[in-house]
Amino acid sequence: MSSPASQSRRPDLDSLYCVNPDGSRNTIHPADVKGRFQARKKIVWSVLFVVWVVLPWLRVGGQPAILIDLANRQFLLFGATFNAQDFYLAYFLLTGVGFSLFVLSALFGRVWCGYACPHTVFLEGFYRRIERWSEGSATQRKRLEAMPWNLEKVLRRGGKWLVFAAFSAFLSHNFLSYFMGAERVLDAMTSPPGDHPTAFAFALVFTVIIYVNFAWFREQLCIVICPYGRLQGVLYDEDTVNVGYDAKRGEPRGKYSQGERGDCIDCFRCVAVCPTGIDIRNGTQLECVGCANCIDACDEVMARLGQEPGLVRYDSKRGLDGLARRFVRPRLLLYAFLFVLGATVFAVAASRRTPFEAAIIRPQGTPYLVQDGIVRNPLFVHLVNKQPRAHSFRIEAEAPEGVRVLLPRTEVELESLADERISFLVEFDRSVYEPELQVVLHIRTADGGLELHPSMVLLGPR
Ligand code: SF4
Ligand code: SF4
């Protein structure tokens, strides 16, 4: 059983605390902590969790507020509808979001990881609590881990794993709601698995992945897998505000009874509460997820000793070194510029989307046919309704004198996000042909509110 003190005695700072030298897992049992940052995190996590659970049930204009319908290549977002043709917008959206995280990291380090990352919200806000209720405090959990399998261990561990499995199934189904719609997921849940085999398989696989991650893999995801976590080292600079230890104030550390010493009493409380098992007094480390547990733990110790809080605190390296802090720095301006650029391009491109699309397309193969002096151009018009409701469209052809447009249909009814290709033929006498000859289609919604006018140059023999 490892004591809090032994937790900081890692072999060297180049190894991970959660991995033993032989490669096996070193399970971390962080101690409970209370404090101002814990209270703030609880509020943020509760709000985020409720929003995440409720969003798939919300409807805007009769449609789900958010639906990522991969099967039909459709995306509904608060009343706006996007289809495969709008996919390029995702690039600008993702780069904008990515650079907003860069700005946040340059300013406040891993604040996203500690407060808003879904992995943290679920692990620290739910799974760790379930574990606490089932197996007790950190000391009791370590005792349980070390003891041989007996009735108590079977009941406590078994109970925890059952609740973990049920909660993982809930997370999995809610996650699926974003892709299938909440009502369809509910319908699948209340039907035999054979009625919805694909949904059942996905729900099962996601449940297993979520369970394994939160029951066992845990902090290793942040340390070993998460690409955002890996990027942190290059996003920080000396003015990035992070969780840090004030060595000028704390050192030389020593027991309270010792004479000449700094404010750190070497109690290891900051280590005992760390979910990644590190000692913040060794400086900023790869494993630190910015959870601020060590700040609350040390403030508690300082309060008991009648000392000022903040021996471990949010501060920049320059701040901890006693130097003036700088807010505006070149890297921050660069990240902010890239973020604004991505967000602006996305906003402009999204605002220029047309509520429906219409394009005249020439089919592959023979571009035109000539028969008995008549030239025929086979074409089709591709119509896409990108509106949240069904619409009917009227098609009217405009062509130069001597050119005939043979449209099989002039009225087309399309469901929301549906599309249709309507083949038509344009014919004219060979003598009428000239290089810039073209046909125009005037396509309007039945109420006349929206219209597009695609055109196509006609081909013929010279
Ligand atoms: S060092 Fe502090 S802020 Fe970083 S992960 Fe550990 S407890 Fe959280
Ligand atoms: S909790 Fe504070 S006083 Fe105790 S070891 Fe950590 S930094 Fe030192």
Description:
Mean pLDDT is 91; it is low at 1-11. The longest helix is centred in the middle third of the chain and has 30 residues, at 151-180. α7 (151-180) crosses α8 and α7 (151-180) packs across α9. The chain has 16 helices and 17 strands. The strands form five sheets. Strands 8, 9, 10, 12 and 14 form a five-stranded antiparallel β-sheet that branches. The relative contact order is 0.12. The termini are far apart. A hairpin with a 2-residue loop joins β9 (369-371) and β10. It has 462 residues and is an alpha+beta fold. The chain has helices at residues 4-7, 36-54, 88-108, 111-115, 118-135, 138-146, 151-180, 182-189, 197-217, 219-225, 227-235, 247-250, 269-272, 293-305, 317-320, 330-351, and strands at residues 59-60, 63-64, 66-69, 74-77, 80-83, 242-245, 312-315, 356-361, 369-371, 374-385, 391-398, 403-406, 411-414, 419-429, 438-445, 451-452, 455-457. Among the domains are: 31-86 and 117-235, no CATH class; 356-457, Immunoglobulin-like. The structure holds iron/sulfur cluster (SF4) (2 copies). The site of one iron/sulfur cluster has 15 residues, from α13 and α14.
Quickly list its features.
462 residues, alpha+beta, Immunoglobulin-like, five-stranded antiparallel sheet, 16 helices, 17 strands, 18% strand, disordered N terminus
